Amino acid sequence: MGGLFSISMPCDQVVNQVSQCLCTQGSYIYSLSENLAALQKGIEMLKAKRDDVQRRVCREEFTGRRERLSLVQVWLTNVLNTENKFNDLLRTNDTELQRLCLCGLCSRNVRLSYLYGKRVVLMLKEVESLSSQCEFTEVTETVSVDKVDEMPVQPTIVGQEKMLERVWTHLMKERVEIVGMYGMGGVGKTTLLTQLNNKFYETRGGGFFEVVIWVVVSKTPEIRRIQGDIAKKLGLDGEEEWDQKDVNQRALEIHNVLRSKKFVLLLDDIWEKMNLKAVGVPHPSRQNGCKVAFTTRSREVCGRMGVDDPIQVHCLEPEEAWDLFKKKVGENYRHIRQLMY
């Protein structure tokens, strides 16, 4: 008959498969005590491995220069979830063991003991799998920090383009380590330093530097605040312990990061000599290739900072001032000629 078919299987093979199935399922009950003991031992071992990985991660993340790999975080999360599931399983441990009878070979409630025993076996496999996955070659990676942050700045006014080019050319000279710009208040020193920062941004760090740091110093400088600004750029302020550290500990951390980097430090509004060492900034030199540029109102401060040939930021020349005025009021203003005299 065309629609019918038959499958023949030896009787002993059927019996064998059925017996294997019953044996496996039966082991969930009669091996429950043994499996629970193995699971508890496996969980303790997994916790120890978890602690080792966690300590390693924390140690490498401590400086703020590295962050944990996503793969490591997923593993740690999975371990935590497994621990929570184990704790839930353990709450009914005594009850389930009390159900066993005939020296643990059977149960007073076969269905419940079977389901519980199966959970234990599946979790044991999960624990073994997680334990085998913890051999990480690397647990963290370097934190990527933008070289330079572009800053808002007013449009370049007459005369500033030449001044910016002069400062840039001077700062890029190999023999120049520190550049000081001085001038009376309101002549555009901060604007000039901001434009210098943005030129580094446009040229991707000048092609040489790994990080450009901007700090406003002010008339009453606070070392902790200055260190905080530097740390923010370096990614150090993300540490929970950072706020608890004193200035010396902060200086050590900043120094440990910057000593391996080619950096530019831009300091705005210095009123007195600044102790770079106290902040944690390595002194710029030809050997490390680092640079410092700052603005101040005083030429004397430039000298105290070790600058022999500071750049003076002048007020606009009369012709430049007139060009700026025309640009602001408009050359078509009918009384503009009268204002010239």
Output the structural class. Answer: alpha/beta
Distance, first to last CA: 120 Å
Q: Over the alpha carbons, how many angstroms does the gyration radius reach?
A: 36 Å
Average pLDDT, all residues: 79
Which architecture of the largest domain does the CATH hierarchy give at level 2? Answer: 3-Layer(aba) Sandwich
- CATH class category label of the largest domain: Alpha Beta
What strand order characterises the main sheet? 6-7-8-5-9
Can you write the helix and strand succession as a string? HHEHHEEHEHEHEHHEHEHEHH
CATH topology of the largest domain: Rossmann fold
How many strands? 9
CATH superfamily of the largest domain, called what?
P-loop containing nucleotide triphosphate hydrolases
Number of domains: 2
- Helicity range of the residues? 40-55%
What count of helical segments does DSSP give? 13
Summarize the biggest pleated sheet: 5 strands, parallel
The proportion of strand residues reads 5-15%
Provide the low-confidence segments as ranges.
4-9, 11-23, 101-105
Shape: rod-shaped
GO biological process, one term: defense response
Pfam family, one: NB-ARC
Keywords: Plant defense
GO molecular function, one term: ADP binding
Task: Describe this entry's structure for a reader.
This protein is α/β, with parallel strands linked by helices and 341 residues long. It has 13 helices and nine strands. The chain has helices at residues 11-30, 32-61, 70-91, 93-99, 110-132, 160-171, 189-202, 223-234, 247-258, 276-279, 299-304, 318-329, 336-339, and strands spanning 66-68, 100-101, 106-107, 140-142, 178-182, 211-218, 263-270, 291-296, 311-312. The strands form three sheets. Strands 6-7-8-5-9 form a five-stranded parallel beta sheet. Strand 2 and strand 3 form a beta hairpin. The longest helix is centred in the first third of the chain and has 30 residues, at 32-61. The termini are far apart. InterPro entries: NB-ARC, P-loop_NTPase, Plant_NBS-LRR. Pfam families: NB-ARC. This is Disease resistance protein SUMM2-like. GO terms for molecular function: ADP binding.
